[in-house]
Each structure stands twice: as structure tokens, then as C-alpha cells.
Amino acid sequence: MSKLIIQIFVGVSLLLCDHQAIYADEALADQARRSLAKATEFLGSISTNGGYVGIYSTDLKLRFGESKYEKTRANEIWVQPPGTPSVGKAFLRAYKATDDKQYLTAARKVARALAWGQREIGGWDHRVKVDHLKPDSVQPERAKGRCTFDDNISQEAISFLMEIDQILDEAWLTESVELGLQFMLKSQFANGAWPQWYPLRGGYHNNYTFNDNSINDCIRVMIEAHKHYGKQKHLDSARRGGDFMILSQCKPPQAGWAQQYDQELKPSWARSFEPAGICSAATGRNIRTLVGLYLYTKDNKYLKPILPAIDWLKRSQIKPNLWGRLYEVGSNKPIYGDRRDGNKVHYDYNEISEFERTHYSWQSSYGIPGIIVYYERIKQLGPETYIAQRDKSLTIKECQARAHSLADRIKTVIASQDPNGRWKRGNEIYIADFVSNLNNLCAYLELVKNDI
Fold it and tell me: Does the pLDDT of residue 13 top 60, yes or no?
């Protein structure tokens, strides 16, 4: 066989292989689209006026919130992620990945449920009633009551509503977003912190709260608001939140942050099993938030607290890449709490009950090693280079490589979906599974879309 014929044969073979690979990817993409559509159709059939709870029995007779000790009524939806706002974000992502308006319609229904469940003051509780929402409703009738920043509840609802507000131009949506952002500004203390609940309800709920990412999520939402609407007051709010982080950092050699602080800026108890102490998990998350503020504002002051905090974290490991959640102020000993004997401090992890060890994160890596690497990379590259690398568009080959790496996971997601469009755990349906699987399907379809 001549050299020319061999070259032609090899070239044609490679071309066929490329076409086969593209065909295989497109075949899987078609399956992913069908899976996405089936899941969305099923979710629409179980929604409560566009909203969702956390857990359903497969016969839909039982409904729960975050866990099965929180029963919900037929007229209630669950706001706490991965609840209603998380489903809305997944639908909106599906619309952007496919250009299919059925997903925008589904996301709009979620937005209406959240707008009609929004409290009069502008935030949300864990659960809200939406039975007063009718198909032709124009203006929400809002209930009075306190709202929470715990578990990213009010923050994620506002975040989703702002995101869909960039696509839809509807009066009820604009009003809901403006009310929510006004609530964020009104509830922020003069020193830049946010409480766990607002209006204030007393006790530890009034504390300046980092626990469960509360202040961190507030700062994130205010940055998102500034990106969307360009208003200085939202950026100023985010910066005040960062300034509070600087203000509340504990002094060396324990240069971390507490989970919550009282009005005198002292680490404080929260629930009866959550003692006052310096918190490794909160410290790691605060480092990430401060780096984010630095990247957004280019203000070096947000980097200054980080090295002392990292030094404390490195010295406080129980063993490599393992930290206690809380450390005693002064001694730096890991401390623990237990619901069975509230308001008592334990120094021995094995002394607390098995229930406590399995139902609360008292020891973990808390993502700290990755957070330290994240900070060091940005310091090495500088903000401009890091942002340019982070935001650059993927090449076709990079899209193909990432799609290939996701393929097995997508096949598993599709194979585990039943003919009704459900993902089940025995006799129960978890909305968290839908949110995770919808986002996985969208991630794959985004790569395929960028590869076209």
C-alpha cells in the first residue's frame, strides 16, 4: 500500500472516529434532554402552586421539610435549600442550557411561589404558605412575621429572584426583588453584621451570626445585587459585611472567628449544645468570602486578616487535615457540646453521645485545605490574572474533555430515573436528589452546547 493511500486511510479513519464520538455525545445529550424534561414534568405534577418541600413519600401522602421530623402541610412550601429556590435555579439553568421555554415557564412558577410566600418585611421563614396564590393573581398578599438568614433561606430566595429578574420583566417580580433587597439593607447592623433573624426576636437569634454561612451568604447576595443592578448601596453593604469580618476577627494566637458574637463582640453560645468558641469551619468560610471581596473590589484590606487566620488553622489541626469545629477561647482546646446535657462543655470527643457525633459536624476538614490553596493561588497570580483564567471561555477540545469526564455520571443519573421521571430513595422522594441530578444534566448539556 502506497504511503499516500495509507495517509488517506488513516485520515478517513480519524474522521470517522471523530464523527462517531460526536454522534455518541449527541446521543447521550438527547437522553439527557429527555431525562431533564421527564423530571421537570414530574416536578410540575407535585408542586404546590410552583413550590416544593424537601421530602415526599412516593404516594405523596406525606410531606416533610429538611428532614422527617419536620412535617409540612399541603399548603406549605419549603424555602431552605435545597428547597424551592434551588429547584428554581435548576430550572433556570436548564432553560439557559437548552433554550427550551418549558424550563423558563417552570422557573417562573417557582418565582411566583416565592414572591407570594415572601413576608411583609421582605424575607422568608423556613416554610411559607402559598395557598393564596391563584393563577391570575397579580399582587401578593404577604403575611407578617420574622424572617431568617439561617441556612441560606432568605438569601437564596432573593438570589434566585434576582437571577430570573434578568430575563423576565414583570411588575410582581420587580417588586419582590426590591422588597427583598430593602430587607437585606434594613436588617444589617451599623457595624456591617447581620443577625440570624430579623426583626430581632431575642436570645442568640439577635447575635452577629457566621454559623451556617449566614453573614457570608448575605455578602454574596449583595455582591450579586451590585452585579445585576449596579447600585452603590448594595456594594457598600457587601463591603460593610467584609469590614465586620475584619472587626470581629479574634486576636492572635487564635486569629480565627467565632460562630456567633454577642453585642459586645464576644464569642457567644447559641443553642444549648453550641458553646462559645473559635470556629474552624467559620474561619475557613470567612477566608473564602474575604478573598471574594478582594477579587471584586481589589481592596487589599480584605486580605490582611487571612495569613493570621491560616496560621491559627494550621496550628489547630487535631491530625493532618482534621479540625475540631470549636476551640476554647484561651486554651485552644477542641470543645464539644451534647443535646443530652445542654450548656455543658466537653473536651473529649468520645464522651459525647453517638447521636451527637452523627447529627452534628464536630470534626471534619471543613474544606479548609482547598480554601488555603485557593488563597495561595490568587496571591501568586494576582487578581487580574486569576479572574482572566477563571472566566476564559472553554475551547471545543476542553468542552469535549469535560463532557467525556462527565459521561459516566450522566449515564448513572439517567439509568437511575424511573419511567415517571422520579429519582427515589426506597419509598421516598428527596428534592435534593432532583436538584443535584438536574444540575448534573445541565452541566453536561452546557458543555455539549458550547461544543457545537
Answer: no
